[in-house]
Design a protein that fits this description.
Layout lengths: L2 H6 L32 E3 L5 E3 H5 L5 E8 L6 E3 L10 E7 L6 E3 L9 E2 L1 H13 L17 E3 L4 E3 L1 H9 L8 E3 L25 E3 L4 E3 L13 E3 H19 L1 H35 L4 H52 L2 H19 L14 E11 L2 E8 L9 E3 L6 E2 L4 E6 L15 E7 L6 E2 L2 E4 L4 E6 L5 E9 L2 E2 L5 E6 L9 E2 L2 H4 L33 E2 L31
Parallel strand pairs: 17-25
Antiparallel strand pairs: 1-2, 1-7, 3-4, 3-5, 5-6, 8-9, 8-10, 11-12, 11-13, 14-15, 16-18, 18-22, 19-20, 19-23, 21-22, 23-24, 23-25, 26-27
Helix pairs in contact: 5-7, 5-8, 6-7, 7-8
């Protein structure tokens, strides 16, 4: 007997029994489905316990067909319907009647689920405390129990108790009447091996991570590392305690989140009530037309209230469900660690730790607050009702992608390998600037002729309703620029942007007249296309075709600091006139 068992099951002679457990608290003895005392209770992966027969009566939620286990991985393989139907076995899933969680049953079905030995013990304790009939002898399974052997941990009828005392092997065992056990908080029962029913589970296979019996280590678990359960309980119990310690704070976090949602809901109702009062006060001065306008405003507010309260209600239900799941996991684990025997803890360890790990990483988020832009503006014109001009509108300050525009010259001209920057101005449905940031902006820039050429863009929120968008085109050519706000294209999107080649230096001369610049040569030509009277090809002062201001002889451009277009115009009719003229 381990130290834990010695503490939970004191000898009758000379020891004071512990106080009975509070059966109305953590101790659960009745099935949530049939409301009767547990009979062969099984634990679902969500840590809710039910009678085996009750679980077998549940309709399957879904059915998968699994093939035979893979000999290398020992895991089942999913089969399609048209392959060897004689080798398929169903993989069932059911919905937990308490938390409505879909849980997958093991290949063996309900009877392959983990047995809740802690619940069995509590049922026995309750029967003893209430003097309830129905507890039968563990040996003959026929007569009602009269006493219990504290050494063998079995319940005995009068006949089996007398035989137990007469046998030489068990004559020295401590056999006490069942009435003396009413004050006990734990009555351990031997848990037998499912493969070798005559052998008790008292060893633990480290390789398979499960309790085993003496015959198991000689057969299926041969050459596996194993040890006595009393020697490994501290290591595995501590791992469960550490996981419980890190999971328990989630309960408080979810409780605070639930309280925050309820507070937001209350504030939302107060906010909407205040707005309704303002609307009524504004509209009561008008007669028929104003009443019609007031009713319209109140309907709009009510729609907003319903929309937001529905969102909060959904979040509340989700958080309540997460909180219920966490409470179940924490309470079950605390109860198991506080009242379960070493073997019971190890048997239940797998399903408990899997559940706690899933509950530990639950995610939740709280929706926006009450003041998210909804306001009442009495100065705004609201149109006419019954021929009367009325004022007062409910502003939601929602961005309207169709009213958003781009500002900046870079969207119309750009150069390769030079940063392109422009500004997005967000507006609401009335065309007014939003005045605040936080919108979801998506920008994509791609080359029209090269599908794999997609540029990396940067979007900076200026927190005033404007967003700075920048990128660097690596190659020249036509680009498509798509700017979306809340998943919708803005005004004018998608844009077409032409990226020019790298800035070109002028090869010619920036002058006023090709004739003068060439020293009076008649064959001097200028790219501007101007000619002189008398057969000269180049342009001159005051003659036809002269630009009237200084220009470049290589391309005819009239801006001194500009990009040379000489190469762009290759092949044009003017190409033959392009010639660099030197002084």
């Amino acid at each position: 007997m381990s130290e834990r068992e010695a503490e939970q099951e004191p000898q009758a002679a000379g020891m004071q029994a512990s106080s009975p457990p509070a059966l109305g608290g953590l101790g659960k003895t009745r099935c949530p489905m049939c409301m009767e005392l547990f009979k062969a209770p099984r634990i679902l992966p969500c840590l809710h316990t039910f009678c085996t027969t009750c679980l077998e009566q549940l309709e399957p939620f879904s059915v998968l067909l699994l093939g035979p286990p893979d000999p290398e991985t020992t895991s089942h393989r999913l089969w399609v319907w048209d392959k060897q139907p004689q080798q398929l076995e169903p993989q069932l899933s059911i919905l937990c009647p308490v938390c409505d969680t879909e849980v997958d049953l093991p290949p063996g079905g309900v009877k392959a689920l983990t047995m809740d030995h802690l619940a069995i013990n509590e049922v026995l304790l309750q029967n003893l405390q209430e003097d309830a009939p129905g507890v039968v002898c563990d040996l003959c399974s026929d007569r009602e129990v009269e006493s219990r052997c504290l050494t063998c941990k079995v319940n005995l009828c009068q006949f089996c108790s007398q035989a137990h005392r007469r046998q030489k092997k068990t004559a020295s065992h401590s056999v006490v009447p069942m009435q003396d056990l009413k004050g006990y908080s734990q009555i351990g029962r031997p848990i037998m091996c499912s493969v070798h029913p005559a052998e008790e589970l008292n060893l633990y296979c480290e390789q398979c991570d499960q309790p085993v019996c003496r015959d198991c280590v000689l057969s299926d678990h041969r050459e596996h590392a194993y040890d006595l359960i009393s020697n490994v309980i501290h290591k595995h119990g501590n791992s469960m305690r550490e996981l419980l310690h890190s999971t328990r704070p989630q309960v408080g976090t979810l409780e605070r989140a639930l309280a925050q949602i309820e507070g937001v809901g209350s504030a939302l109702r107060s906010r909407m009530d205040a707005l309704s009062a303002d609307v009524r006060e504004f509209c009561d001065g008008y007669i028929t037309a104003i009443r019609e306008h007031r009713d319209q405003l109140l309907k709009q507010l009510e729609d907003l209230r319903i929309q937001k309260e529905n969102t909060l209600h959904l979040q509340k239900l989700q958080v309540e469900q997460l909180l219920a799941d966490l409470r179940t996991g924490v309470e079950f684990t605390e109860h198991l660690l506080s009242n379960g025997s070493d073997l019971e803890i190890l048997i239940t360890k797998g399903v408990v730790m899997n559940r706690l790990k899933k509950l530990k990483i639950v995610d939740y988020s709280i929706g926006p607050g009450v003041d998210d832009g909804i306001c009442f503006s009495p100065q705004e014109k609201a149109g006419q009702y019954g021929g009367y001009e009325v004022f007062g509108v409910i502003l939601t300050k929602g961005v309207d992608p169709a009213k958003c525009i781009l500002q900046g010259e870079d969207i119309h001209k750009a150069w390769e390998k030079q940063k392109v920057t422009f500004t997005l101005l967000c507006r609401d449905t009335l065309g007014e600037p939003m005045g605040r940031g936080g919108e979801h902006i998506r920008v994509s820039v791609s080359h029209k002729n090269k599908k794999d050429c997609v540029l990396k863009t940067m979007v900076q929120d200026n927190n005033n309703g404007t967003y700075t968008i920048s990128f660097i085109p690596e190659e020249p050519g036509p680009y498509t620029v798509c700017v979306c706000v809340r998943g919708q294209h803005i005004q004018g999107s998608p844009y077409t942007m032409t990226v020019r080649r790298k800035f070109r230096q002028h090869q010619g001369i920036f002058h006023c007249c090709s004739f003068c610049s060439s020293g009076g040569q008649k064959n001097a030509r200028c790219a501007c296309g101007g000619t002189m009277a008398g057969g000269y090809q180049g342009c001159g002062h005051g003659h036809k075709g002269h630009p009237g201001r200084r220009h470049w002889s290589c391309c005819g451009g009239t801006e001194e600091k500009s990009d040379c277009s000489w190469k762009v115009e290759v092949g044009s009719s003017q190409r033959s006139l392009v010639r660099t003229v030197a002084l």
